[in-house]
Backbone:
Protein backbone atom coordinates (compact mmCIF):
# COMPACT_ATOMS: atom_id res chain seq x y z
CA UNK A 1 0.00 0.00 0.00
CA UNK A 2 1.10 3.53 -0.71
CA UNK A 3 1.97 5.48 2.41
CA UNK A 4 2.10 9.25 2.38
CA UNK A 5 2.68 9.55 6.09
CA UNK A 6 4.08 6.86 8.34
CA UNK A 7 1.97 6.13 11.38
CA UNK A 8 4.83 6.88 13.72
CA UNK A 9 5.39 10.25 12.14
CA UNK A 10 1.82 11.27 12.89
CA UNK A 11 2.39 10.97 16.64
CA UNK A 12 -0.89 9.41 17.54
CA UNK A 13 -0.01 9.29 21.21
CA UNK A 14 -1.72 11.87 23.38
CA UNK A 15 -0.19 15.30 22.92
CA UNK A 16 -0.37 18.61 24.68
CA UNK A 17 -3.50 20.63 24.04
CA UNK A 18 -1.54 23.32 22.23
CA UNK A 19 -0.08 20.77 19.81
CA UNK A 20 -3.57 19.45 19.05
CA UNK A 21 -4.46 22.79 17.50
CA UNK A 22 -2.12 22.04 14.58
CA UNK A 23 -3.06 19.73 11.73
CA UNK A 24 -0.91 16.84 10.56
CA UNK A 25 -2.44 16.74 7.09
CA UNK A 26 -4.47 18.88 4.71
CA UNK A 27 -6.84 17.15 2.27
CA UNK A 28 -8.63 18.72 -0.69
CA UNK A 29 -12.04 17.33 -1.65
CA UNK A 30 -14.11 17.84 -4.78
CA UNK A 31 -17.77 17.92 -3.77
CA UNK A 32 -20.29 17.13 -6.51
CA UNK A 33 -24.04 17.64 -6.18
CA UNK A 34 -27.02 18.82 -8.22
CA UNK A 35 -28.45 22.33 -8.04
CA UNK A 36 -32.07 22.13 -6.93
CA UNK A 37 -33.39 24.86 -9.28
CA UNK A 38 -31.79 23.64 -12.51
CA UNK A 39 -31.03 19.99 -11.70
CA UNK A 40 -27.54 20.56 -13.12
CA UNK A 41 -24.29 19.23 -11.68
CA UNK A 42 -22.31 21.66 -9.54
CA UNK A 43 -18.87 21.19 -8.02
CA UNK A 44 -17.15 22.81 -5.03
CA UNK A 45 -13.66 22.52 -3.57
CA UNK A 46 -13.46 21.97 0.19
CA UNK A 47 -10.59 21.45 2.61
CA UNK A 48 -10.01 19.21 5.62
CA UNK A 49 -7.36 19.84 8.27
CA UNK A 50 -6.90 16.93 10.67
CA UNK A 51 -4.72 15.37 13.33
CA UNK A 52 -5.30 12.39 15.60
CA UNK A 53 -8.07 13.98 17.65
CA UNK A 54 -9.36 17.08 15.86
CA UNK A 55 -10.52 18.07 12.40
CA UNK A 56 -11.75 21.19 10.64
CA UNK A 57 -13.67 21.12 7.33
CA UNK A 58 -14.23 24.34 5.37
CA UNK A 59 -13.86 26.26 2.13
CA UNK A 60 -10.55 28.14 1.81
CA UNK A 61 -12.04 31.21 0.11
CA UNK A 62 -14.69 31.47 2.82
CA UNK A 63 -12.02 31.13 5.52
CA UNK A 64 -10.02 33.93 3.89
CA UNK A 65 -13.14 36.13 3.76
CA UNK A 66 -14.00 35.45 7.40
CA UNK A 67 -10.42 36.05 8.54
CA UNK A 68 -10.33 39.49 6.89
CA UNK A 69 -13.86 40.37 8.00
CA UNK A 70 -13.03 39.70 11.65
CA UNK A 71 -11.25 43.08 12.01
CA UNK A 72 -12.41 46.55 10.86
CA UNK A 73 -9.23 47.10 8.85
CA UNK A 74 -9.50 43.69 7.23
CA UNK A 75 -13.17 44.21 6.40
CA UNK A 76 -12.34 47.46 4.60
CA UNK A 77 -9.56 45.75 2.69
CA UNK A 78 -11.88 42.90 1.68
CA UNK A 79 -14.43 45.34 0.26
CA UNK A 80 -11.69 46.98 -1.80
CA UNK A 81 -10.49 43.62 -3.17
CA UNK A 82 -13.98 42.44 -4.09
CA UNK A 83 -14.92 45.76 -5.68
CA UNK A 84 -11.74 45.78 -7.78
CA UNK A 85 -12.43 42.23 -8.96
CA UNK A 86 -16.14 42.67 -9.67
CA UNK A 87 -16.52 46.23 -10.93
CA UNK A 88 -16.26 47.07 -14.63
CA UNK A 89 -16.34 50.52 -16.20
CA UNK A 90 -18.56 50.56 -19.26
CA UNK A 91 -17.79 52.56 -22.46
CA UNK A 92 -20.40 55.15 -21.48
CA UNK A 93 -18.62 55.79 -18.17
CA UNK A 94 -21.10 53.91 -16.00
CA UNK A 95 -20.07 51.09 -13.67
CA UNK A 96 -21.41 47.54 -13.61
CA UNK A 97 -20.84 45.05 -10.82
CA UNK A 98 -20.80 41.25 -11.13
CA UNK A 99 -20.27 39.51 -7.79
CA UNK A 100 -19.60 36.20 -9.56
CA UNK A 101 -16.19 37.51 -10.65
CA UNK A 102 -14.90 38.21 -7.16
CA UNK A 103 -13.53 36.12 -4.30
CA UNK A 104 -16.62 36.67 -2.16
CA UNK A 105 -17.91 34.18 0.38
CA UNK A 106 -20.37 31.75 -1.18
CA UNK A 107 -20.02 28.70 1.10
CA UNK A 108 -20.83 29.07 4.80
CA UNK A 109 -20.19 25.52 5.99
CA UNK A 110 -17.68 24.81 8.77
CA UNK A 111 -17.42 21.50 10.62
CA UNK A 112 -15.25 21.13 13.74
CA UNK A 113 -14.73 17.61 15.14
CA UNK A 114 -13.18 17.07 18.57
CA UNK A 115 -12.72 13.51 19.83
CA UNK A 116 -11.65 14.43 23.40
CA UNK A 117 -14.87 16.42 23.77
CA UNK A 118 -16.86 13.67 22.07
CA UNK A 119 -18.67 16.13 19.84
CA UNK A 120 -18.98 17.73 16.43
CA UNK A 121 -19.96 21.37 15.90
CA UNK A 122 -21.53 22.43 12.60
CA UNK A 123 -21.79 26.04 11.38
CA UNK A 124 -23.80 27.23 8.37
CA UNK A 125 -26.26 29.77 7.00
CA UNK A 126 -29.88 28.81 7.65
CA UNK A 127 -32.71 30.80 6.06
CA UNK A 128 -31.68 34.35 6.97
CA UNK A 129 -29.39 33.73 9.93
CA UNK A 130 -26.05 32.09 10.66
CA UNK A 131 -26.24 29.32 13.22
CA UNK A 132 -24.53 26.31 14.74
CA UNK A 133 -25.45 23.06 16.44
CA UNK A 134 -23.65 20.16 18.13
CA UNK A 135 -23.81 16.42 17.54
CA UNK A 136 -22.36 13.48 19.48
CA UNK A 137 -19.16 12.20 17.89
CA UNK A 138 -20.49 8.62 17.92
CA UNK A 139 -23.80 9.38 16.16
CA UNK A 140 -22.52 8.07 12.80
CA UNK A 141 -22.43 4.24 12.87
CA UNK A 142 -20.67 2.25 10.13
CA UNK A 143 -20.78 -1.25 8.68
CA UNK A 144 -17.39 -2.12 7.20
CA UNK A 145 -17.45 -4.35 4.12
CA UNK A 146 -14.99 -6.42 2.12
CA UNK A 147 -14.82 -4.35 -1.10
CA UNK A 148 -11.62 -2.42 -1.74
CA UNK A 149 -10.75 0.27 -4.27
CA UNK A 150 -7.97 2.73 -5.03
CA UNK A 151 -8.23 6.47 -4.35
CA UNK A 152 -5.18 8.67 -4.99
CA UNK A 153 -3.01 5.57 -4.90
CA UNK A 154 -4.28 4.43 -1.49
CA UNK A 155 -6.03 1.10 -1.00
CA UNK A 156 -9.39 1.94 0.54
CA UNK A 157 -11.99 -0.23 2.25
CA UNK A 158 -15.72 0.20 1.76
CA UNK A 159 -18.03 1.13 4.64
CA UNK A 160 -21.72 2.09 4.69
CA UNK A 161 -23.95 4.08 7.02
CA UNK A 162 -27.50 5.40 7.21
CA UNK A 163 -27.21 8.96 8.44
CA UNK A 164 -29.84 11.68 8.71
CA UNK A 165 -31.99 10.34 5.92
CA UNK A 166 -29.41 9.14 3.40
CA UNK A 167 -27.44 5.97 2.82
CA UNK A 168 -23.75 6.71 2.35
CA UNK A 169 -20.97 4.53 1.00
CA UNK A 170 -17.47 5.61 2.00
CA UNK A 171 -13.96 4.40 1.27
CA UNK A 172 -11.32 4.83 3.95
CA UNK A 173 -7.60 4.04 4.03
CA UNK A 174 -5.99 2.39 7.07
CA UNK A 175 -2.66 3.78 5.77
CA UNK A 176 -3.68 7.13 7.29
CA UNK A 177 -5.34 6.11 10.57
CA UNK A 178 -7.16 9.36 11.25
CA UNK A 179 -10.88 8.88 12.09
CA UNK A 180 -12.14 11.77 9.96
CA UNK A 181 -13.18 12.67 6.46
CA UNK A 182 -15.02 15.37 4.50
CA UNK A 183 -18.12 17.10 5.87
CA UNK A 184 -19.33 15.35 9.05
CA UNK A 185 -17.85 11.94 8.25
CA UNK A 186 -16.02 10.41 11.18
CA UNK A 187 -15.59 7.23 13.18
CA UNK A 188 -13.77 4.88 10.79
CA UNK A 189 -10.27 3.45 11.43
CA UNK A 190 -8.73 5.49 8.63
CA UNK A 191 -9.07 8.69 6.67
CA UNK A 192 -12.15 8.76 4.40
CA UNK A 193 -11.05 9.63 0.86
CA UNK A 194 -14.36 9.17 -0.92
CA UNK A 195 -18.04 9.10 -0.02
CA UNK A 196 -21.16 8.84 -2.19
CA UNK A 197 -24.83 9.22 -1.27
CA UNK A 198 -27.96 7.50 -2.56
CA UNK A 199 -28.90 10.72 -4.40
CA UNK A 200 -25.61 10.88 -6.33
CA UNK A 201 -23.84 13.47 -4.20
CA UNK A 202 -20.14 12.71 -3.71
CA UNK A 203 -16.97 13.79 -1.94
CA UNK A 204 -13.67 12.72 -3.53
CA UNK A 205 -10.19 13.54 -2.28
CA UNK A 206 -8.08 15.27 -4.91
CA UNK A 207 -4.90 15.88 -2.91
CA UNK A 208 -3.24 15.08 0.42
CA UNK A 209 -0.23 16.80 1.97
CA UNK A 210 1.54 16.90 5.30
CA UNK A 211 1.14 20.25 7.02
CA UNK A 212 1.30 22.12 10.28
CA UNK A 213 -1.53 24.57 9.69
CA UNK A 214 -3.26 25.82 12.81
CA UNK A 215 -6.90 24.82 13.03
CA UNK A 216 -8.18 28.25 13.96
CA UNK A 217 -11.59 28.43 15.68
CA UNK A 218 -14.58 30.01 13.97
CA UNK A 219 -14.17 33.71 13.27
CA UNK A 220 -16.72 36.14 14.78
CA UNK A 221 -18.57 33.50 16.85
CA UNK A 222 -20.94 36.18 18.14
CA UNK A 223 -22.59 36.22 14.69
CA UNK A 224 -23.87 32.66 15.14
CA UNK A 225 -26.81 31.55 17.23
CA UNK A 226 -27.47 28.03 18.46
CA UNK A 227 -30.16 26.25 16.43
CA UNK A 228 -32.00 22.96 16.33
CA UNK A 229 -30.75 21.06 13.27
CA UNK A 230 -34.07 19.80 11.92
CA UNK A 231 -35.91 23.05 12.57
CA UNK A 232 -33.12 25.08 10.97
CA UNK A 233 -33.24 22.90 7.85
CA UNK A 234 -37.02 23.16 7.68
CA UNK A 235 -36.83 26.95 8.08
CA UNK A 236 -34.24 27.10 5.29
CA UNK A 237 -36.53 25.17 2.94
CA UNK A 238 -39.47 27.44 3.77
CA UNK A 239 -37.35 30.52 3.06
CA UNK A 240 -36.15 29.13 -0.29
CA UNK A 241 -39.71 28.39 -1.41
CA UNK A 242 -41.18 31.68 -0.17
CA UNK A 243 -38.36 34.22 -0.44
CA UNK A 244 -40.23 36.64 -2.71
CA UNK A 245 -43.32 36.76 -0.49
CA UNK A 246 -41.19 37.09 2.66
CA UNK A 247 -39.14 40.02 1.31
CA UNK A 248 -42.16 41.80 -0.18
CA UNK A 249 -44.01 41.50 3.12
CA UNK A 250 -41.01 43.03 4.85
CA UNK A 251 -40.01 45.73 2.38
CA UNK A 252 -43.11 46.26 0.25
CA UNK A 253 -43.99 45.57 -3.37
CA UNK A 254 -41.11 47.71 -4.61
CA UNK A 255 -38.76 44.77 -4.14
CA UNK A 256 -37.63 43.59 -7.58
CA UNK A 257 -36.33 40.13 -8.50
CA UNK A 258 -34.25 39.32 -11.57
CA UNK A 259 -36.22 36.12 -12.16
CA UNK A 260 -39.60 37.58 -11.27
CA UNK A 261 -42.37 35.96 -13.31
CA UNK A 262 -40.41 32.77 -13.84
CA UNK A 263 -41.96 29.65 -12.34
CA UNK A 264 -39.38 28.43 -9.84
CA UNK A 265 -39.62 24.80 -8.79
CA UNK A 266 -40.25 23.95 -5.17
CA UNK A 267 -37.24 22.70 -3.26
CA UNK A 268 -37.31 18.89 -3.26
CA UNK A 269 -35.47 17.96 -0.07
CA UNK A 270 -35.83 14.22 -0.59
CA UNK A 271 -33.93 14.57 -3.87
CA UNK A 272 -31.42 17.35 -3.18
CA UNK A 273 -30.90 17.81 0.58
CA UNK A 274 -27.80 16.28 2.10
CA UNK A 275 -29.82 15.57 5.27
CA UNK A 276 -33.49 15.02 4.32
CA UNK A 277 -34.51 13.37 7.59
CA UNK A 278 -36.28 16.55 8.70
CA UNK A 279 -38.77 15.79 5.92
CA UNK A 280 -38.94 12.06 6.41
CA UNK A 281 -39.71 12.44 10.11
CA UNK A 282 -42.90 14.44 9.45
Residues:
Amino acid sequence: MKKLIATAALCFAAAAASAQQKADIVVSYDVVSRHWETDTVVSERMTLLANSSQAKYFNDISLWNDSLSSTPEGARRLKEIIFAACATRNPDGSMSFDSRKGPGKKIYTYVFSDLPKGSLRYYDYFAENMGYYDEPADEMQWEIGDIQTDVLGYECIEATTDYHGRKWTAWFTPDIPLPFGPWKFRGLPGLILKATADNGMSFTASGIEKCERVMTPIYSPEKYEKVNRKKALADKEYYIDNVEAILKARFGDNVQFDDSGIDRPKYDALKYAIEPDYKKSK
User: Anything to note?
Assistant: Residues 226-280 form one domain. Residues 229-251 form the longest helix (23 residues). Helices lie at 60-69, 72-86, 229-251, 269-272, 277-280.
